[in-house]
Amino acid sequence: MQKKYLKVVEVAIEHEGKFLIIQRPAEVHAGGLLAFPGGKVEKVDESDDGDILRAAAKREILEEVGLVLKDNLDYVVSSYFVSSDTGDHVIDSIFHCKVKKTILKISVSKREVVNYYWMTAAEIDLAANCPPWLKKYVQHIQKL
Known about the structure:
This protein has 3 helices and 7 strands. Strands 1, 2, 3, 4, 5, 6 and 7 form a 7-stranded mixed beta sheet that branches. The protein is of the alpha+beta class. The chain starts with a strand and ends with a helix. The chain has helices at residues 52-65, 121-126, 132-143; strands at 5-15, 18-23, 34-35, 38-40, 74-82, 89-98, 115-119.
């Protein structure tokens, strides 16, 4: 039987040496933990003339934190895991966006985001509710 994968995208939005970090609601996957904003690739993203992952990333950023990304989204890394909540096989792609043109007016979706923070890599590393995979993603970004 062929595996079906759930495709997820996250964006490390960086401005002046800090990353936009969200805290997920308790009742969702990785509830209560820190994360980059992002989410699932959906059917609507297929209409973006072939750049489905970036389309999904931009849509998710708009939905979760209200930002219209005008800067480049650079691919960083992908990871695979099996969701402990649903058993889904997940491929998670991380993008990096260094803000130059995007207007940073945050408006969070209360349904998807408990809180948001601008954090340095060191602050992320020290945060008690920071999962190991987020720390690893930040390390990948710092190597770029």
